[in-house]
Amino acid sequence: MKRLIWVAALLTAQHASAQATQVAPTTVGGYVGQVSSLVFEVRTELAPTVTGVRRTEACQFTPKKVQALLDRGNELTNQQRSAYAANATPTNASLYLAVTQARNALLSIQEGVNAACTYAREPLAASVASLALKVAQLEVELAFGELAKAADAVGGR
Predict the structure, then answer these.
(1) CA Rg value for the chain
(2) Whole-number Å distance between alpha carbons of 131 and 134
(3) Which of 12, 79, 88, 157 is the most buried (most CB within 10 A)?
(4) Are the C-beta atoms of residues 7 and 36 closer than 8 Å to each other?
(5) Is the predicted pLDDT of residue 99 greater than 90, yes or no?
(6) Are 97 and 146 in contact (CB under 8 A)?
(7) pTM for the complete prediction?
(8) Maximum Cα–Cα distance for the chain, whole Å?
(9) Distances (CA, A) of 112 to 26, 45, 51, 131, 152
(10) Could you report the per-residue pLDDT of 69-80, keeping only the tens digit for each?
């Protein structure tokens, strides 16, 4: 339990720092935290009950946010892949898996946004969007699990 509290505190601090400065996250933990926040935001903003201007704005701006995080995720993925190739430790493996899972969550968000916004009039669009966003949430949870493994591997509290 202490380990989860430690990881949550670390991610919260990194996320708050990244939000305050509006810069791309520089750590895997900060990246996973931002992706997690985006999953929550998108699930809220694109819920079937949200309509009108709020939904229009979400459909307009969410793809840009997702793309910016995907671009950063590509950089972090390459960095972690290189780190693991240079030094195949359990920590590097977990960090690589965490960033990969976070990127997968973003791809699921893209599918959900596409279904909710582009194909909104199709009969199953809301169900597809909801399912894609639930998958994104599960992928983020897997990323957090990998961060916890990385913390364990380095002797985290």
Answers:
(1) 16
(2) 5
(3) 79
(4) no
(5) yes
(6) yes
(7) 0.78
(8) 51
(9) 26, 12, 16, 8, 33
(10) 999 999 999 999
